[in-house]
Write a structure and sequence with these properties.
CATH superfamily of the largest domain: Aldolase class I
Number of domains: 4
Structural class: alpha/beta
Distance between the termini: 60 Å
Bound molecules: 3-methyl-2-oxobutanoic acid, zinc ion
Number of helices: 18
């Protein structure tokens, strides 16, 4: 290794696999592809796209991501058995740079109670299956699950054997988020000391955040020699989540003096990636979250504001621009034409938008510019995201009229187009949103339960667009819907209908004959 590659840390993003595994974070294929494109724009090194044997949906997602991604490596997860590995390899077939990531538990607790296998059997499975994977693919990652709670002698033995069998990356997971930084760094250092062929593989870490230490543990491990960090956008993931990609990357970038390592991530895409994921999953980012929280660069106190105005570095350790956070820029007015609009979309990262979606988005932009005095970048993003969600909808809103105020009852008149059939109804409800949702529910005959209803303002001011997220659950399936509009009630209706359309797609996939919209 040259000194520049010696200090390069590979960013392995598992938002689409470990992140997506967490309850409420599931994404459909289109959403996964949008996240994958975003991850390419971020320039992460490896995208773990899913667990192909887990379901047909996962298989298809890995395959489609593998087709779309050009630069990053695309990884598919597989347990340490041939069926899993074959399925992962089949899904990765279109990838320019495929990686098989295979794992098995190695801690005494997991081997005894979860796997009910003797250590020797686990060891042999590693030797056999890492070797099998390596015969298919020249890029193989092996993870001893629950690595941080694995006995050191056994961990050294399986790591050495996995490398001998052909693993090119060894990933040490802190699966249950139990490690603390000094101890985790010592574990990595111990592997470097004791595993004779350790220099033949990249050492990676994968930290969960149960004690809020995932990023600290990852950084400590990097300092001890790890050169790949596994992480997710906004730190989403099982339970308390995974290490947050943006925190690892910005800590390394901001404190190069203390941690002389670099990543290839284009940090100016971080804010956009965070917003996109939050909009897709409905998981909001806490305002005080490092790097991507709404308050991360806000200076409220007079003393801080004064200091920042005199010299930004008095209270700012990184610039907002370095994470892609800009002053809201006034983009265009109602006189702006298609050309300028398309150029703006390209600048905002929507290069791939199709002609029909572009036309629809442009029409909505014109409507918005008529209603709203100032149209900002954020407005365009909300509007285009909303438009891109509505491609093959079975259910469309035709019109909504609402009566609300202090003198109840609140009432909604709703007209929907359900696969070409116009359906109308009026419903009263406990507030206007409830009335709208009741009306939509009765028109579509759904029993879906509302699990989340969230409203965010896209920009400041009373004429701001509202961005609404709705989470619905039906028969154990959960989906998130989004809607944006200057009218909060219309945005709510759009979000509800979007979620219903997603539920229909899920139903279609599981039971094609059961669709009765
Ligand atoms: O947390 C974990 O151990 C994992 C492995 C599959 C790497 O996600
Ligand atoms: Zn994990």
């Amino acid at each position: 290794m040259t000194s520049s590659t010696a200090n390069r840390v590979w960013i392995f993003d598992t938002t689409l696999r470990d992140g997506e595994q967490s309850p409420g974070c599931s994404m459909n294929l289109e959403e996964k592809l949008r996240v994958a494109r975003m991850l390419e724009a971020l320039k992460v090194d490896i995208i773990e796209a899913g667990f192909p044997i887990a379901s047909n949906g996962d298989f298809e997602a890995v395959r489609e991501v593998a087709k779309v991604v050009k630069e990053a490596r695309v990884a598919g997860l597989a347990r340490c058995n041939k069926a899993d590995i074959d399925r992962a390899w089949e899904a990765l077939e279109p990838a320019a740079r495929p990686r098989i990531h295979t794992f098995i538990s190695t801690s005494p607790l997991h081997m005894k109670f979860k796997l009910q296998l003797e250590p020797e059997v686990v060891h042999q499975a590693i030797v056999d299956n890492v070797g099998y994977a390596r015969n298919l693919c020249d890029d193989v990652e092996f993870s001893p699950e629950d690595g941080s709670r694995t006995e050191h002698d056994f961990l050294c033995r399986v790591v050495e054997s996995a490398i001998k069998a052909g693993a090119t990356t060894i990933n040490i997971p802190d699966t249950v988020g139990y490690a603390v930084p000094d101890e985790f760094a010592a574990l990595i250092a111990m592997l470097f000391d004791r595993v004779p062929n350790i220099d033949k593989a990249v050492i990676s870490v994968h930290c969960h955040n149960d004690l809020g230490l995932a990023v600290a543990n990852s950084l400590a491990a990097i300092d001890a020699g790890a050169r790949q960090a596994e992480c997710t956008i906004n730190g989403i993931g099982e339970r308390a989540g995974n290490a947050a990609m943006e925190e690892i990357v910005m800590a390394l970038r901001t404190r190069r003096d203390a941690m002389p390592y670099e990543t290839g991530v284009d940090t100016t895409q971080i804010t956009r990636a965070s917003h996109l994921l939050s909009a897709i999953t409905g998981f909001s980012v806490q305002p005080n979250k490092a790097i991507v929280g709404a308050n991360a660069f806000a200076h409220e106190s007079g003393i801080h504001q004064d200091g920042v105005l005199k010299h930004a570095q008095t209270y700012e350790i990184m610039t907002p621009e370095s994470v892609g956070l800009h002053e809201s820029t006034l983009v265009m007015g109602k006189h702006s034409g298609r050309h300028a609009f398309r150029a703006k979309l390209k600048e905002l990262g929507y290069g791939e938008i199709g002609d029909n979606q572009m036309e629809d988005a442009f029409r909505r932009f014109k409507d918005l510019a008529d209603k709203k005095k100032d149209v900002y970048d954020e407005d365009i993003v909300a509007l285009v995201d909303d438009e891109m969600l509505r491609t093959k909808d079975h259910i469309k809103i035709v019109s909504i009229q609402v009566m609300c105020g202090t003198e109840g009852p609140q009432k909604a008149d709703v007209v929907l187009d359900v696969e070409g059939e116009i359906r109308k109804t009026s419903k009263t409800g406990d507030g206007p949103v409830d009335a709208i949702f009741q009306a939509i529910k009765s028109l579509c005959g759904t029993q879906a339960h509302l699990r989340l209803f969230r409203i965010d303002a896209v920009t400041e001011g009373t004429d701001a667009q509202a961005e609404v997220t709705v989470r619905l659950e039906e028969d154990g399936k959960t989906v998130n819907g989004q809607g944006a509009d200057t009218d909060t009630l219309v945005a709510a209706a759009r979000a509800y209908v979007h979620a219903l359309n997603k539920l229909l797609v899920k139903r279609e996939k599981t039971a094609p004959a059961a669709i009765t919209v």
